[in-house]
Design goal:
Structural class: mainly alpha
Helix content: over 70%
Radius of gyration: 29 Å
Largest sheet: 3 strands, mixed
Strand content: 5-15%
Order of helices and strands: HEEHHHEH
Shape: rod-shaped
Strand order of the largest sheet: 1-2-3
Distance between the termini: 59 Å
Number of helices: 5
């Protein structure tokens, strides 16, 4: 089983290297062919099997910084995060005060009976478990919100790019984060940012 797993890893690594090799080759052609239209030809021209490919790329980090919908959703998420943090901190601080008061009372012999001390200790343990449960629930809720925000932004950008590309007819629109090099003339980030905000704003 170990050797089988190792073999699978090696196979996947080889596939990754092949993909990277093809990506580098495409980027090399894109950067050095000097084709002003953003077109390049792949294949053997002598065999008649060559094909023209039109490529553009987007700096997605720049788009997210300027897209008003993304900024609004991110701000709302941060507001919820601060609210959750405030709720958790208030309960945590109160618990720490109660726990410190309990320790001090035990040290000073403030409980009339051992049973009373034990009951207070159990109450504090229940309070601590409640705080831990709250921490978990708020973290889960925040993660769900983060996922929903991410998906909404992705869906919005994908929808716009499909509409945008209906007239541009690019074969590929790449995210610059996955590129090693890109010629500025194929950079459509500004068009995408302006188009997204124009569509979003009333």
């Amino acid at each position: 089983m170990i050797f089988k797993h190792h073999s699978l890893i090696m196979k996947n690594s080889t596939i990754v290297l092949i993909v990277l090799g093809v990506a580098v080759a495409i980027l090399y052609l894109l950067h050095f062919t000097g084709n002003k239209s953003g077109m390049m030809r792949l294949g053997n021209e002598n065999s008649g099997n060559s094909v023209s490919v039109s490529i553009a790329y987007v700096k997605m980090d720049s788009v997210l910084f300027t897209y008003e919908l993304a900024k609004k959703l991110t701000t709302n998420l941060q507001t919820n995060q601060e609210s959750f943090k405030k709720e958790y901190s208030a309960k945590r601080i109160q618990f720490e005060k109660d726990a410190a008061s309990f320790r001090e009372k035990v040290q000073k012999g403030g409980f009339l009976t051992e049973e009373r001390a034990k009951l207070e200790q159990e109450r504090l343990m229940g309070q601590q478990q409640e705080i831990e449960r709250l921490d978990y629930e708020l973290t889960q809720k925040l993660n769900e919100m983060q996922g929903q925000v991410n998906q909404q932004i992705i869906d919005s950008i994908s929808s716009f790019l499909k509409s945008y590309n209906a007239s541009k007819k690019y074969d590929f629109i790449l995210n610059s984060a996955s590129m090693l090099e890109g010629t500025p003339k194929y950079n459509i980030t500004k068009d995408v940012s302006e188009g997204l905000n124009k569509r979003y704003m009333p």
